[in-house]
Amino acid sequence: MLKDVLKDARERMDKAVDSLQVDLRSIRTGRASPSLVEKLTVDYYGAPTPLNQLAGITVPEPRMLMIRPWDRSTMGIIEKSILKSDLGLTPTNDGQVIRLVIPQLTEERRRDLTKLVARRVEEARVAVRNIRRDAIDMLRDLEKEKLISEDEMYEGRDDTQELTDKYIKQLDEIGKTKEAEIMEV
Q1: Residue 67 and residue 83 in one domain
Q2: Contact in structure between 15 and 22 (CB atoms under 8 Å)
Q3: What is the pTM of this model?
């Protein structure tokens, strides 16, 4: 019982960390990265489709993304999706490929992005703490139903807290790494 509760909490905390990492990949640093646009949805024949399913995305230069649609008729809708997105990038189309030049970030924009990273990290911390609360509630319920002893409940609570501390430390490190990446000129 105790191991099941901790295993469930660990799996859910892993998902919170993974979710943060995926979320932070979409935040623009000064460098070009395919992850900036690959999940961008394009209205392809009435169905929202991720860009990485419609085109190949490469990084020919450190500050440029090149999008090569597999079907040239999709170039217009891909361009519109990029313009509508909150990336703030203007695509250039030469009939074969779409190029996105990633401009240098201003100091103010860097600070805004670090605040955004801090906010996302805090949301992930809250998610991990909610998982801890759920696990502890489960342990209390198991103890009330006499499925585990009071000592086991306290031991499980301490193990859950250790697990939570480990994951929150991991989240903080991910956030610091991303902030350093953003502030790098």
Answers
A1: yes
A2: no
A3: 0.72
